[in-house]
Amino acid sequence: MLGKLGLPEILLILAIALLIFGPSKLADLGKGLGEGIKNFKSAVKNGEEDSEKKS
Fold first, then answer.
1. What domain range includes position 34?
2. Cα angle at 40 between 52 and 14, to 5 degrees?
3. Could you read off the pLDDT tens digit of each residue along the chain, which spans 55 residues?
C-alpha cells in the first residue's frame, strides 16, 4: 500500500504546503509548474515533428 496517495493524503499535503509557503508563493509555484509542463509538452511535440521530417 505504500506509494498510493488518496484524496485525503493529497489534501493534507496541500494544507501543509499552504501553511509553510503561504498563498502567494504557492500560486507562483503552481504557475511555474504549469509553464514547465507546457514547455515540456511543446518540446516533445517539436521533437516528434523533427523525427518525422528526417524519416
1. 22-55
2. 150
3. 557 889 999 899 989 988 988 888 888 988 999 999 999 999 998 887 777 776 6
